[in-house]
Amino acid sequence: MVLEAEPDLIVVGEAGDGREAANLARTLRPDVVLMDVRMPVLDGIAATAQIVHEVPDTRVLVLTTFDLDEYAFGALEAGASGFLLKDAQRAELTAAVRAVHRGDIPLSPRITRLLLERLAEQPTPTAVDDPTGTLTDRERDVFLAMGRGLTNTEIAQQLFLSESTVKTHVGRVLAKLGARDRVHAVILAHRLRLVGDGDPLPPLL
User: Fold this and answer.
1) Its pTM surpasses 0.85
2) Would you tell me the crossing angle of helices 44-54 and 18-28 to the nearest 10 degrees?
3) Helix (H) or strand (E) holding 64
4) Which neighbouring-strand residues pair with 59?
5) pLDDT per residue over 176-185, tens digit each?
6) Could you tell me the sign of the dihedral formed by the alpha carbons of 107, 21, 91, 142, in that order?
């Protein structure tokens, strides 16, 4: 009801379990899927992984109960573009759906910091392909700033660029790296160990 009340949002389907959600996503190919992590038959994490793999143009926004619990982090690892608490207000929900559709990161600076700290705790992968060789020097600077969780405004200030220029660089970085959105750019930067414990993180709000 909340989503259908928005003039620019159209609800094209609803599912009662994760398997049905994955099947509907393949058929309907929606722009955004709003997924509960705790779904019957097939849980939301597994359903998210299926949707991201089989319908790569569809982005998944996950609903969870607690900030970055095992379910939320698992969903991000499975390919979700962000998550939102179930008690989010109407404006937060609709804004998050729009942000995911734009490819933005619908996470607060505090949650972004928790994500970065969690990523820093992960063991170093044995082998990860490094696609950053195609980036220009400026695009690499932007990518590293994204990996530290900086917003476009913060990147612009740090690199002495306009926000519109940063936005252009971000789009090119995502395209060259094959990253769906900023969340996955952050994850890739940490998997490649291009940013880590010694790098500055965004301030807590």
Assistant:
1) no
2) 20
3) strand 59-64
4) 32
5) 988 888 888 8
6) positive
